[in-house]
Structures are given as structure tokens and as C-alpha cells.
Amino acid sequence: MLALILTNLTGCKEVTVISADQTETFVKSNQVFTAPTDGFFLPAARYQRYRRAVADKIQELQTDSTLNH
Prior knowledge:
Mean pLDDT: 78
Radius of gyration: 16 Å
Order of helices and strands: HH
Oligomer: single chain
Structural class: mainly alpha
């Protein structure tokens, strides 16, 4: 279902399956979390900020692409 929503929102023609090390895991405060891989783990607020920035950039690129055709 999520793949269908993302496909419609981004205008993608195909769905890409991501590997398990790229999944999102919600961790409650004071909950012990053992990371399956090395990496950076962000608080929800910062993560949402990054997601919004990426979504805005995608929309900007799609708008520019539409205007140039």
C-alpha cells in the first residue's frame, strides 16, 4: 500500500524494494535499541525535517521538469 501511495505522489513508473538495512524503526524514549548496522540515528523531529526537505526538492525538480517540456 505504501509503495502505491509513494508511486502516485512522486510520479514514479516503478517501485523499488529497499533492503532490510534501510527500513525505519521507531524507538520510544528510554527504550534500548541495538542498531542492525552502523549509521546515524536521528530524533523524530530532525528526521521529519529531512524528509520534508527531500520531498520539497523532489517537488521542485518535478515542477522544473514539467515547465521545461
